[in-house]
Design a protein that fits this description.
single chain, alpha+beta, four-stranded antiparallel beta sheet, two-stranded antiparallel sheet, 10 helices
């Protein structure tokens, strides 16, 4: 059976299951029993329940749009348990819809199917991540958790507050809920892949994400890496800015800094060496 990779894990794709759907008995020669699909006859395996739900709805005598939408919901909830990449799911749907639109026709408009898939995936992720301190959409920490983490690091460091910086990703707000969701998810993915594993990652609103890291040379390297990461893909048209800001020595001013950045506060670009202690009012790029 043709497979699709999610996080480098091969799984049965929507298109593969649809192409290998059960064949009517009248169209068989020496095929297996009537209820056995080509895929099952070849591999001995059935597609996952979510994939099967979509294929079953599409292969009904008269496909019901509501049944197809329900199948996409089941599919999204199932995939959400095994992958954090919504883009991968949408690629699967587009791959199948390309074939449907060019052959038998799609019972749901592509945009409607994509919206149903996104909505269901977000609901599934929110249910899975419904714990204090976690943003249910991106899976990153909330701003409140980040503030608490700064205080915890200071306590562990002893007398002097730690020299910390924020890697700040900001992008243009998108029109429409799906594009806003997509940008949040892509920003979260970029932070996870380009910033050190022990960083505290935080989502603030729908147009800004942060990484709390030590004030060192690696932070500048991560800033460059993040900038390169957002030059292609979903965020390439979002006018993403990646800056480095010092966490104020007066920690009580940190919420004020984050709120200002979220509101689009102007930044300077004065170059300062790593570990330069300053008020946190400007970019350290």
């Amino acid at each position: 059976m043709t497979m699709f990779n999610h996080d480098d894990i091969p799984v049965t794709s929507l298109l593969a299951a649809w192409l290998e759907r059960p064949v009517p008995a009248s169209a068989r020669d020496d095929d297996p029993a009537p209820e056995t699909s080509r895929a099952e006859a070849t591999t001995g395996e059935l597609p996952p329940p979510g994939v099967e739900a979509v294929v079953d709805a599409l292969t009904a005598d008269v496909p019901d749009p509501e049944d197809v939408a329900h199948g996409l919901t089941v599919f999204a909830w199932e995939r959400a348990a095994s992958t954090r990449d919504l883009t991968c799911l949408l690629d699967e749907l587009d791959e199948l819809w390309d074939v449907l639109e060019a052959s038998v026709g799609a019972p749901l408009p592509r945009v409607t199917a994509r919206h149903r898939l996104v909505d269901a995936w977000v609901d599934a992720v929110a249910a899975e991540r419904g714990s204090p301190g976690i943003d249910p959409l991106s899976g990153l920490h909330t701003a409140g958790y980040l503030y608490g983490r700064v205080n915890e690091l200071d306590r562990l460091s002893g007398i002097e507050p730690m020299a910390l910086v924020l890697l700040v990703m900001r992008w243009d707000p998108a029109d429409g809920p799906w594009r806003r969701i997509a940008r949040v998810l892509q920003a979260a993915s970029a932070l996870r892949s380009r910033v050190r594993p022990d960083a505290t990652l935080s989502q603030v609103g729908t147009a800004m994400a942060l990484a709390l890291v030590p004030d060192d040379a690696q932070a500048r390297v991560e800033r460059i890496s993040l900038t390169k990461a957002v030059e292609t893909g979903e965020l390439s048209t979002a006018n993403v800015r990646v800056d480095v800001f010092a966490v104020p020595d007066s920690r009580a001013r940190l919420p004020e800094l984050v709120t200002g950045l979220l509101g689009g506060a102007n930044v300077d670009h004065e170059i300062r060496p790593p570990r330069f202690r300053h008020s946190g009012s400007g970019s350290l790029d």
